[in-house]
Amino acid sequence: MEIKSSNNFFNYSTSLPGILFKLKCSLVISTYQAGKVIIVSSLDGAHLRMYAKNFARPMGLCVSGEKLAVVAQHKLHVYSSSPRMAIQFPPKPKFHDAVFLPQVTYYTGKADMHEIDWGDEGLWTVNTAFSCLSLMDEANHFKPMWKPPFITKLTPEDKCHMNGLAIQDGKPKIVSMLGTTDTKKGWKANMLEGGILMDVTDNKVISDKLPIPHSPLFDKNGDLLFLLSGTGKVMRQSSTTGEIKEVASANAFVRGMDLYEDMIFVGKSSLRKTSTMYDLLSFPKDINPGVGIFDQKTGEEIAQINFLQRITEIFDVKIMPNLIRPIIVDEEDEIAKSAFKLPNGGFFWEKANSEDKKEA
């Protein structure tokens, strides 16, 4: 794989721009360690475009249609975009295909929410501190909806380190966690052998003794894919036989995954030498973190992007379908105060020229 050095901040395989351009998508990455959400895309198939937005400890990401959600420290932010509105974006008209504007901010406190996803009932969160799945609620910091049967009481003690959620048919189906303990951070005593995947619908453990499972999700055939951070591997569990097989090996600490077309996008992190896991894991820990792209059928790594400084840990990786020029506008941006997104595609940019103003 040929690697192209773009600058002192990142490098990437020469095949990556062409892949993103052909797929007509962008890659969005969260790094809580560096406090950024990064969008990677290609406008011409030959070069990469990188856009970064600062957040306080961003972790879980979710993209659904014209909505984007980012869970950050003490808050969960929801943004929405409109293609017609993006085209008229006053600072740069006729360039962006998505301008994600702030719509709702939920105050979560120190719930330490990890992965998030939209389902039929709303925005689901993996509530790691309280060892449960929760829905966002306008009247409360969150609404607890499900907890593992071995958790006796909901307290903010991170008892099992629930970290991942797979939605199926609009409902929570599978969660990943690092232990089955009911004491404060009890999972830490057996991190490399205590992990499980649990079916939320019947409280059944479908796989156990896993080395740090993470980021479960379903493919188009109904098979369950998940990461084993402790071995650096991508795994698949058959929906018909229940058999678990290795799909690909990233040879790094993996966390954050998405599927698109026939490709698997996987976040790869380096580990601090002070980490309790550093001496327990056999693969390289001092890597340049980034995202690896793997062929679902062969397991071959066909492309990658690597960060060379400031970033060490990746949390989540998601695809933005049909977008190659998206940006995020938050409440700190002055332009956000001039935007009005209305139902049925209507909008209004207060500071736009009169001929560019649109109303419902």
What can you see in these coordinates?
The protein is mostly beta strands. It has a single domain (18-356), classed as Neuraminidase. The chain is 4% helix and 46% strand. The strands form 7 sheets. It has a 6-stranded antiparallel beta sheet, covered by helices on one side. Strands 6-7-8-9-27 form a 5-stranded mixed beta sheet. The longest helix has 8 residues, at 16-23. The chain is globular, with a radius of gyration of 20 Å.
What is the top-level CATH class?
A: Mainly Beta
Q: State the distance separating the first and last CA atoms.
A: 50 Å
Mean pLDDT reading? 93
- Major sheet characteristics: 6 strands, antiparallel
Mass-distribution shape: globular
**What structural class results from the helix and strand content?**
mainly beta
Trace the largest sheet across and list its strands: 1-2-25-24-23-22
The helix fraction, in percent, is under 10%
Summary of the model, kept short:
This protein has helices spanning 16-23, 83-87; strands spanning 3-5, 10-13, 25-31, 36-41, 49-54, 61-64, 67-72, 75-80, 98-107, 113-119, 122-127, 132-135, 143-146, 162-168, 171-177, 195-199, 204-210, 213-218, 224-228, 233-237, 244-249, 253-260, 263-269, 290-295, 301-307, 316-321, 326-328, 339-341, 347-349. By secondary structure, the chain is mainly beta. Strand 4 (36-41) and strand 5 (49-54) form a beta hairpin.
List strands and helices in order, with pairings.
Blueprint: E1 3-5, E2 10-13, H1 16-23, E3 25-31, E4 36-41, E5 49-54, E6 61-64, E7 67-72, E8 75-80, H2 83-87, E9 98-107, E10 113-119, E11 122-127, E12 132-135, E13 143-146, E14 162-168, E15 171-177, E16 195-199, E17 204-210, E18 213-218, E19 224-228, E20 233-237, E21 244-249, E22 253-260, E23 263-269, E24 290-295, E25 301-307, E26 316-321, E27 326-328, E28 339-341, E29 347-349
